[in-house]
Amino acid sequence: xxxxxxxxxxxxxxxRQGRRDFLKHVCTSSAAALVLTTTPSEAVDSASNPDADATxxxxxxxxxxxxSEEEKLKAIARLEKRYSAKYMKKTTVANTPAxxxxxxxxxxxxxxxxxxxxxxxxxxxxxxxxRNDPEVQWIQVMKMPKGNIAFTADxxxxxxPEKSEFGDYGVQVGGNAYKxxxxxxxxxxxxxxxxLVPDKDFFYMPVQCQQCEKPPCVKACPVRATFRDxxxxxxxxxxxxxxxxxxxxxxxxxxxxxxxxxxxxxxxEMNPKTHYFGNRPRMRGVMEKCTFCAQRTRxxxxxxxxxxxxxxxxxxxxxxxxxxxxxQVLATKRVFRFKEEAGTYPKFFYYIG
Amino acid sequence: xxxALSFAMDFGSYAIKGGTKYYAWLLFLGFFILVGSYTxxxxxxxxxxxxxxxxxxTLESFFASFVFTAHVAAAAVLVVAPGYxxxxxxxxxxxxxxxxxxxxFVATGITFxxxxxxxxxxxxxxxxxxxxxNFPNSMLAYDTIVLNVYxxxxxxxxxxxxxxxxxxxxxxxxxxxxxxxxxxxxxxWGPLIHIVTAFVLASNARIGSWHTAVLPFxxxxxxxxSGPALIILLFLLIRKNTKLVINDSVIDLMTTIIAWSLGxxxxxxxxETFTLLYPGTEHASSLRYTMFGHNGLNMxxxxxxxxxxxxxxxxxxxxxxxxxxxYDRLLPLVCFVVFVAIxxxxxxxxxxxxxxxxxxxxxxxxxxxLIEFFNVLFVWAIGFxxxxxxxxxAIGILTGEVRHDKSxxxxxxxx
Lengths: 353, 415
Ligand code: SF4
Ligand code: SF4
Prior knowledge:
The complex is a heterodimer. Chain A is of the alpha+beta class. Chain A contains eleven helices and twelve strands. Helices cover 30% and strands 13% of the residues of chain A. In chain A, a hairpin with a 5-residue loop joins strand 5 and strand 6. The two termini of chain A are 18 Å apart. Chain B is mainly α. In chain B, 47% of the residues are buried. Residues 407-415 of chain B have low confidence and may be disordered. The chains are: A alpha+beta, B mainly alpha.
């Protein structure tokens, strides 16, 4: 109700803001464009060793959003060529724009989630993450004790002061006094390895990039390699990121993953249908994270994690459309945002169905 | 032009001349540079995976060391300021030494940041014009600006002062009018780089132990302790081994600064500890972890208490004038302890434990790898090598052994 109105208003605002930002970029980027036109892009096609020249051209390419249409096409052609050769299959790198009049949102039912981690693995498969040594996962499922998770009944009257003329309830020091009550991650298990899920004494809470409306990561990035698109999704230009990890420091959801070494993606497991800002293979030394499957959602499909969930705990949709699944959840369920005290206004909602 | 050339030549040839001890020191640094070149090569070809950093603890020893270099660089103004702001005669000539320390440490810090980056080859992306600088949003963008400006200011200061002295025109009347403003700007800029560096950390609201208004004050007071500690050690060494005169009064001033900076550090730590621990909210988890460990993870506990003991102990020691006057024994010892305590405080208390618990409640320990360790030593070795050579040349000029008008004579007698 009032929640809906807030979202609508904020979105309009953000959209306007986004457009203004974009114009500003175009203006300030003329210098960058100058440099770009001088790169030996014609040489790329004719050279005997396309890799070397393409690498040089790729090295000198500017921020993707600031490129001209022509430069974008060239950059994409370069990448398709490189990936196709490297993974020995025809790879496409899409540049589908984000749809207009859409604000992507996600809702996850922690009452239903059984902690099977199928979303985690579907995501890895879809998004071309490094497979082993290390395996990079964008979704992390927390296994948390049921009830008031940081509260233990046997600690009720423990602690200091033990005895006083007011009784013997040690509430100030010891006992439960040092535990945070409420939804605290303090007792979460992130690496549980159960044969059978769900464990009846626990509930599960998957966390991935929350696509904040006020993303601290975007603020922190010194080169604006990470930014928010007009459908509300926070993306990264992997070719522009300098690997300083300021965004990782800033993110309150531990959503960002860094390629500490060369990503290890076997050719046969590589997903050749990619998007420039989505699942195209990354290089060493750059940041990555959930993009709400840009390669899928920008074409009107659902994210891979949403499709993989066996119990239907995940709902994805357009927050601006009152009939979408997400909006239905927002209208009818008890909904909360994770760490709302961080003031980031996630577009990822949790609810208990 | 010719004078400038002979300035560079004389300076260089004096800098590389010295006794056996001097060469042994250079060789010692050379060893770490040699080993470090190999480990640096490993890091730049394989990526940061060779360090101990993880997605949980994303800052490595390079970033921690960078914060420390900012301490010392900022504190170097304490040598420059007395001469120019308070017109202390005994310090005016020494100002250049402060500026050299500042210059070398800022450069070392910038090198550390390059080691910290995943793609140092893409550094040009941040240059306005050819790249895109996220100004005024990103704190790292501010830091890049203030560090580079500080580096340039100090470079100008050092070269100009030494050159003027070299050609024998160092009297106030003969200095260019733009020079004084530059020195004053550099003095103001010192604390500024440090405050901005503190904000780079404090701006991350999710890291409880940095998200505090006392962080800049903690940083400045640590700068006030660690910087002068290094400078006293340098002054004592210079006094013993060269003809440059450095009065006791100068050293006493530095000692006083250290003592009171340590006092402020203690107050800041106490205030922060109290503010976090008394209400015992979630924000205290990280500090509690550092102080007492968590479920058997207690790697940082000994470092925390070790650093605290060293800081309080040095403070108490400096209250005794016997210690303060013991120029050849106790004072250098205390300075050494202060320097090392604050150097180790950076990774082991400020940076690594701050990441636990992570936003998803994980506790982690950081284990520095051998390659990382040698890379840190590599950067330090380059820093200290430059510091040694530049200081050596500068001392030649300050003592008048290297001079323009009798340059031939000077270089002979120096040999
Ligand atoms: S969850 Fe983290 S990575 Fe995602 S938008 Fe928010 S701050 Fe950025
Ligand atoms: S790691 Fe990349 S995306 Fe993150 S702040 Fe640095 S440059 Fe920006």
